[in-house]
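Summary for the lay section of the report: proteins are chains of building blocks that fold into shapes. Here we show the chain for Transposase IS200-like domain-containing protein and then a coded description of the shape we predicted for it.
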Amino acid sequence: MSKINYPFSFREKVHKLTKKMATQHLKLPIEGGKFYHIYKSASIGDHIFFTPGNYAFFLRKMDLIIGDMVDLMAFCLLPNHFHLFFRAREVITIKEEYVDHPVEIGHFIGEGLRKLFAVYSANLTKQEGIADPLLDNNFSRIFIPNDDIARQMIVYIHQNSQFHNVTDNFTNYPHSSYPLMMGKHKTLIDKDSIMTLFADMQTFIDLHQQPTDWGSLHEYLIES
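The coded shape description reads as follows.
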């Protein structure tokens, strides 16, 4: 795949748009059966992830804590922030009891994400010897209203490492879900749901070879 080049002036424009919107989505309730873009950055300092082991630890805990409540469809973990994209499930099980009310499901997912941040932050504080946690309980989230925007959001999240100049080829970036889609083995992402959105693997690959359509997508991006 050829490198997707984003001019500096274009990056600045995108950052201004997304920074303006980020604070508007800290308290948006999550509901079962809907798509969500989740964004989180360090509350203090410049980094969330310091070592390869940090990325692996975060993903393991994420799968353990919220893996049974969401269909994870994309993620990209960068040194100072991360993006998740998932569909909240319509039915979940809590303490052997079925929960099918959309608001209740959203409550449990939100609590799960806060637990994930607390567990990860405690581990990182121990590792780095930092007195204050790097992650607080707040996180930005935005509802994604339809399949078309969902497809674009998945592409955007996968391209994010290249957009931020963390890598010159996002397809090889190890801390995103794109390489997992290329593999044959079962992973923490829901490949079946992703293929329902993209129809087939070739369509998935072809759409990732195009720059993000910022004009139609910018209102769904949340970066501080």
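Put simply, here is one thing we learned. Residues 8-219 form a domain with the Alpha-Beta Plaits fold (CATH 3.30.70.1290).
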